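quick one, 217 residues, struct below
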Amino acid sequence: MTPQAATPAYRRLSVEERRSQLLDAALSLFAHRVPEDVSLDDVAEAAGVSRPLVYRYFPGGKQQLYEAALRSAAEELEHCFDEPREGPLLPRLARALDRYLAFVDQHDAGFSALLQGGSVVETSRTTAIVDGVRRAAAQHILSHLAIADPGPRLRMTVRMWITAVEAASLIWLDEDKQPPLDELRDWLVDQFVAVLSVTARRDPQTAALVDALAADG
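---
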């Protein structure tokens, strides 16, 4: 008599594991469809669970689930700019952009919904989450610049560039992901140097930074 293979024992997921499973399913859906087009039934089906179970973990329904998924995506985006402070600045910035643009590429058409909020589900909370991503990215870059007390012109320049990166990413998706990612990354790094150079004409602190970057390169 041939022994049968043992059936894997069912393992009940912990609260955190189940919540993570539901968020992963939601993020996967939001990565390719705008929030308005994703229902709780869709999330339940993607996670292989029942709709009541989704409600058990997210009693606030779709809005609560969307905000939780947005926070999860925001944390991933924030980590994109968390590059070790070793070596020349511009290669560090390029590596951070590689991670950021890979996130954009992976989430494809849902990037706008994940980063900017959907027109139906956007609230002051989702806006604050997204703004937090931009501020965190700017803070990471200012930290890489190794300037103890950056002035308003330099801070504004960095935040303006972050906004430009976001806009370029959205346009890149509209343009069928052209130019190639490596070209887009290099172009954005060049733009960073360019906007710093413009600010340097009016700000001695930024001028010293541009000189340091030239020597570093």
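The chain has ten helices and no strands.
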